[in-house]
Specification:
This protein has three helices and no strands. It is 82% helix and 0% strand. By secondary structure, it is mainly α.
């Protein structure tokens, strides 16, 4: 639809903008996951006497893998809810 209205150049602009937005989201999520992992592991295992850096790295890697695997499912589920009207508030009227 963008091609029909604005032409090919607008499509390239839209793709570039989308990729910049996705990159910004990736950076923000990485920063949040790092901070979350550092705080949780430090509080939970500080007195255990085991090295914290491997635990922090392992938690960050596992959160990243789970995020990559479950994000497409949530996107599809949200589209399904939007298509069926089940996700709208006040649908019982």
């Amino acid at each position: 639809m963008i091609n029909e209205v604005y032409g090919r150049s607008m499509t390239r602009v839209a793709i570039a903008l989308l990729s910049q937005i996705l990159f910004a989201i990736l950076i923000a999520m990485t920063n949040f996951l790092t901070l979350d992992s550092v705080i949780f592991v430090s509080i939970a295992f500080f007195t255990a006497g085991i090295p914290l850096l491997p635990l922090i790295a392992g938690q960050m890697v596992s959160k990243g893998i789970i995020g990559v695997l479950d994000t497409p499912w949530f996107v599809r589920y949200k589209r399904y809810l939007g298509a069926t009207g089940a996700g709208k508030a006040g649908g019982g009227r």
